[in-house]
Amino acid sequence: MRDILYIVVPCYKEEEVLPETSKRLKEKMNTLIESGKISAESRIVFVNDGSSDNTWEIIKNLHENDNLFSGVNLSRNRGHQNALLGGLMTVIDHADVTISMDADLQDDINAVDKMLDKYYEGCDIVYGVRSARDTDTFFKKTTAEGFYKIMDMLGAKIVFNHADYRLMSKRALKGLQEFKEVNLFLRGMVPMVGYKSDTVEYARGERFARSEERISFEKNAGICL
Length: 225
Hints:
This protein is α/β, with parallel strands linked by helices. About 40% of the residues lie in helices and about 20% in strands. A seven-stranded mixed β-sheet has the order 3-2-1-4-6-5-7, with helices on both faces.
C-alpha cells in the first residue's frame, strides 16, 4: 500500500481562486490515487488564516461535498508562515508525507509527481525550485537575488529560488516540530532539519486571481520573493 499524502495549502482571502485551485488539486490527487502512487486516504487540507471573506465557507462546503478536502480554521490572522506551520503540525500524525503549496496556482501542480518520485527514492525533503525568473521585472529579480546573497552571508542556508513549495516526510516534520522559534522563517528552518534532500525545478506561473486588497496585504507582508 502506498503512503498517505496530505497537501497543505495556507489561505488568506482566497475566495476568488479556491474553486479553481480545489478543482485542479482534486484532479491531481485522483490521478495519483488511481495510478497507485499515493494512498486513497490522502487528503487536501486548506488552512484558513483568519480570512474575513468567504474563504472558510468555501472550505467547509468543499469538505461537506467531498471528504478528499479538509480544513483548519485559525481564530485570527496569524500570517502565512504560522498558518503553514499550523497546518503541517495538524496533519503530522495522519500523513506519511506532506506537500505545502500556495493557493494562487503559481506553483506548478504537476511538479508533485516528481517530488513524490524523489521521496520514494529516499528523500525526506524535496524543494520546489523556480527554473527561471524570466517574467520578473528587473527590480524584482535584482532584489530577490540580493535577498538570497544577504541571507547566505548571515548564515541562513536557504535554497535559491525556493519559496514554500516543498515535500516533507513524516520524520522530517517531526524534526521541524522540535524547533521552538516564535518568528518563523520556514525557508531557513527546514534545511536545518537535516536528512536527505533534493530539488525539483518548475516554471512558476502567474497568480490565478488576486484582489487589490490581497496585493496590498502581500506588499505590506513582504511576500514578493
